[in-house]
Specification:
This protein has 939 residues and is an alpha+beta fold. It is 52% helix and 9% strand.
């Protein structure tokens, strides 16, 4: 038995069974054939309920084809008179209204049929819906005079209907289609007189429709009569809030149309400007019992810029009342006592003088016009009204410096509001009017108290506001600096924001900084002080303040000791955007304030010479051309690192030249070592880098012209062509066909772009476009030979930069650097990592993602919430969010890399199978390492 086992073990088997992989099943998608003919088939319904069900189901399929429109309309019009239920007829009229939006609707044919149905209809609701349908028809036939006359004649007859639905629909029709020439056929009254009469209708909904109709006339460019103002003033006491709101809007319109017209004042013989009287009327509405009316009134006040200053200033004056009488000043009371001649007890002079009898119903706190309007608006119980009042107050303050100084205290009081959005609105309002204001100490105490707010958005906005303000005294600046330093201890993650605030304070109040500089820098006239730690954020904040003030007052420079100048040199290199350029008195440290005009001309000359040098590449051999590209890359790399305003342009050209060099090297190797597996993988990797860099050139730079973008597209197409030849050498028939289809799709996209912009083509692309012109389906073998034969025509291209480019700039402030204390969380659960970054020169932030790279090389793209991006200005954003981390258990703490990337999807399918997703992740910032430790799950 043992011999048999040994014999079997030593046996040589000559047969090898190889299992072939079964071909993958291809899914065939069959598009469902949709019938073009749509039929209602209302005749099949046995009752009205089934008809309504058919109409509801048909309404879900709208819009329909134009071919089926006439048949459907004919069936609807035929069924309408046979239907007994008014609700179903109303639904039919509603469906006809929706069908009237289709372009092939025959208005001349169906308008008469709708009018005939309107004459015989008895239901008010159905008549109202038919009038709405006629409104849609009339809009499409606005220039058809005959149709407009028919419609207006029918609508005028229905204005006397007993139903408010019909009258409201008719008024809406007149507001959207009425003209100044149209008159009532019987009374011959003009249109606006008819609308004014309906402002006193017994039904409030009709009154609202009348006001809205006048507003629609104004929006259509028809001049509203001045006589409407009196009707609006009367309607301000209407018991329906929508009527009062519409009346306020119409008063606002008339104030803009007739600002200098005079109107009589109530109960007097005086006349004032209409814009002033309208302003007072809108101010009175701030005391309305409806929140919607108060909000609308508060929001409309801000756009009345032509109001007289005396009325404007009254809005901040709040008159107090005691025992239903206005509280008089001490001077007024003394004068009355002196003028009184009545007998009294002798204790108080004129204490028994008779007083006028007052009716409580006639007492109003706002009987003095615009008095206290904004005070009441800012103290309203609803945040919508307070925000609207703040917006209007800010807008009026921007246009009136004197009013801005008066409203300063009112706006600052809103810093203590209980709602965050109101506080933020108040902070932004003060910042907008900062050019007209100067902060006092009592005001600054209120403002600095908000620095302790838990909301990071509030703190950020407040510091930005402080940087724009002017301070009254040096004590104000000292309190502000001390509070900012205290705020730095409490919120160390806000240090960048605090440094920016210090920079702006130094620029705005350099004179006050000069008086505080000895105390801030601890300068002693008799002995030397120890050198502070440059890594201390508080000391760095003081330096930022003083250095920016010294840029405007050179008197500060002699106060600086040698270590201060060393610190300046260090900060100027580490944070140049926060430290202003200075010149040392002994000329040891000299920094140019800005790039001179000669430097600008030199950089322009450098770019032109570089482009001219690259134009000679087509006449050189491959090895010489590649050496020239390498030399050019060194020059461009040096210029891009200088930190000037031309660095981004130099970096753009550097990436483009690098693409040309890599593509040239790949083409040379492909021609000499064609289809060798040893070089194929490295060549594919190089081509992937070229495609990635073309995406960076297209997506990460602003100001790229059409000529530069055309060269980027051509480079991408050439790299894809070389990649196609490598893919076809090692793929099966199915993958080769798919790769060819993707390449042809990309070629059509690039060819269309180049043709539209009339770009100059490369020799290779010219030959390729001419040979494939008009060919719909190209076999992989044919396309492979075409690209392979013309590959030698590929030459590096020269780039001319026409504009100064700007690159997307992202700076991650938090997390800053690796800490000894790791971030701990239980394995399998999640942990929130705070992320704070500044983003500049970007148009769309919706494509930004957080890229997390774990120690096991696993990567994760985290989609960021759009609300976490706060817009600071054009193309400038501030990101404050949390990145969720989660992983398995680790044996020891490890570093996790976090960075921000831009995810883009090109408009073409990838050629290589290595990038099947077609999604490019473009790095926007350097990765930040965070020490993370996972804990085991406790049982």
């Amino acid at each position: 038995m043992a011999a048999l086992i040994k014999k079997r073990a030593l046996a040589e088997y000559s047969q090898v069974v190889q299992e072939r992989a079964q071909p993958l099943k291809q899914i065939r998608l069959i598009k469902k054939v949709v019938s073009s003919a749509v039929q209602l088939n209302l005749q099949s319904a046995t009752n009205s309920q089934e008809v309504l069900h058919i109409l509801l189901k048909f309404e879900e399929s709208l819009p329909i084809d134009e071919d089926s429109l006439s048949g459907v309309l004919r069936e609807l019009f035929d069924h309408f008179p046979r239907e007994k239920e008014a609700m179903v007829r109303c639904k039919i009229a509603m469906v006809i209204k929706e069908l009237a939006y289709i372009p092939s609707f025959k208005y001349d044919l169906y308008t008469d049929e709708i009018l005939s149905l309107l004459k015989t209809e008895k239901s008010h609701r159905v008549v109202s819906q038919l009038v709405d349908t006629l409104t849609v028809v009339g809009k499409s036939q606005y220039h058809n005079t005959e149709v407009q006359e028919k419609l207006l004649s029918s609508v005028f007859k229905l204005l006397s209907d007993s139903s408010h639905l019909v009258r409201s629909s008719c008024l809406d029709f007149l507001g959207k289609l009425g003209t100044t020439d149209c008159q009532h056929s019987r009374s011959h009254q003009p249109l606006q007189k008819i609308l004014a009469d309906h402002m006193y209708d017994i039904d409030s909904r009709v009154r609202r429709s009348a006001f809205n109709a006048v507003l629609n006339l104004h929006q259509r460019g028809i001049q509203v009569d001045l006589a409407m103002y009196d009707h609006c003033c009367r309607s301000l006491k209407d018991d329906y809030e929508d009527v009062r709101m519409a009346a306020i809007k119409l008063i606002w319109v008339l104030c803009h149309l007739y600002p200098e017209s005079t109107v009589p004042v109530t109960d007097t013989c005086e006349e004032i400007r209409l814009v002033d009287d309208g302003f007072v009327k809108i101010c009175n509405s701030i005391n309305d019992f409806s929140m919607k009316v108060r909000k609308e009134a508060a929001s409309l006040l801000g756009s009345l810029h032509l109001v007289s200053p005396k009325f404007l200033e009254q809005t901040l004056d709040k008159k107090l009342m005691s025992n239903m009488r206005r509280k008089r000043t001490a001077h007024e009371r003394a004068r009355e006592n002196y003028m009184s001649g009545e007998w009294s007890t002798g204790k108080i002079w004129a204490d028994d003088a008779p007083k006028e009898a007052l009716d409580p119903d006639n007492i109003s706190l706002m009987n003095s016009g615009a008095c206290g309007a904004f005070v009441h608006g800012l103290e309203d119980e609803y945040l919508e009204v307070r925000n609207a009042a703040l917006d209007s107050l800010c807008e009026l303050s921007v246009n009136s410096p004197s009013f801005a100084r008066l409203s300063q205290d009112c706006i600052i009081d809103m810093f203590n509001d209980e709602i965050e959005s109101v506080r933020l609105n108040a902070i932004n309002s003060i910042r907008k009017v900062s050019a007209h204001l100067e902060l006092r100490e009592d005001q600054l105490d209120i403002i600095l108290g908000v620095l302790q707010d838990f909301s990071g958005t509030i703190r950020e906005s407040l510091r930005e506001m402080l940087g724009h303000m002017k301070l009254a005294t040096s004590s104000c600046l000292n309190n502000c600096v001390m509070e900012l330093l205290e705020n730095l201890k409490r919120y160390p993650q806000d240090k960048v924001s605090i440094w920016k605030c210090m920079k702006k304070l130094g620029e705005n109040v350099p004179n006050l900084t000069l008086s505080l500089a000895p105390d801030l820098l601890c300068i002693q006239p008799y002995f030397s002080t120890p050198e502070p730690d440059i890594e201390d954020p508080a000391y760095l904040s003081i330096l930022v303040l003083v250095f920016n003030a010294a840029a405007r007052i050179p008197t500060l420079l002699p106060m600086f000791s040698e270590y201060v100048w060393r610190h300046y040199s260090y900060l100027r290199k580490s944070i140049p955007d926060l430290v202003a350029p200075l010149s040392h008195p002994s000329s040891q440290f000299v920094v140019e304030s800005e790039v001179s005009s000669d430097a600008t001309e030199d950089m322009t000359t450098f770019f032109n010479q570089t482009s001219a040098r690259l134009e000679t590449l087509s006449r050189l051999e491959d090895s010489v051309a590649q050496n020239l590209l390498k030399m050019t890359l060194k020059d461009l790399d040096h210029v891009s690192k200088l930190g000037t305003k031309f660095s981004d342009s130099a970096e753009f050209m550097h990436k483009f030249v690098q693409c040309q060099l890599m593509l040239s090297q790949v083409v040379s190797k492909t021609i000499h070592f064609f289809c060798e597996m040893s070089t194929s993988d490295s060549l594919m990797s190089s081509l992937d880098k070229v495609l990635l860099m073309t995406e960076e050139l297209e997506k990460l730079f602003l100001g790229v012209g059409v000529s530069e973008l055309s060269l980027v597209h051509q480079t991408r197409l050439k790299a894809s062509a070389v990649m196609l030849t490598l893919v076809l050498c090692r793929c099966d028939e199915a993958e080769s066909s798919q790769a060819c289809r993707n390449f042809l799709q990309m070629m059509q996209h690039v060819q269309k772009f180049l043709t539209i912009n009339d770009a100059t083509l490369d020799r290779f692309l010219s030959e390729l476009f001419s040979k494939l012109d008009g060919v719909e389906d190209v076999k992989p073998v044919v396309l492979h030979k075409l690209v392979q034969n013309d590959m030698s025509l590929m030459q590096p291209q020269a780039l001319h930069i026409s504009n100064r480019l700007c690159k997307v700039e992202v700076v991650i402030h938090e997390p800053t650097k690796t800490s000894d204390n790791p971030l701990k969380f239980t394995a399998g659960l999640t942990a929130a990592l705070p992320l704070h970054a500044s983003i500049n020169n970007i148009q769309d932030v919706s494509c930004i993602r957080a890229l997390v790279k774990y120690p096991d090389l696993e990567t994760q793209l985290v989609k960021l919430n759009f609300n976490d991006f706060r817009k600071l200005g054009p193309l400038r954003y501030n990101l404050v969010t949390n990145v969720i981390l989660s992983h398995r258990l680790w044996s020891e703490p490890c570093h996790v890399e976090v960075s921000l990337v831009l995810c883009t999807e090109p408009g073409y399918q990838p050629i290589s199978s290595s990038n099947k997703s077609g999604l490019f992740t473009l790095q926007l910032s350097k990765p930040v390492t965070v020490l993370v430790a996972t804990k085991p799950i406790k049982c």
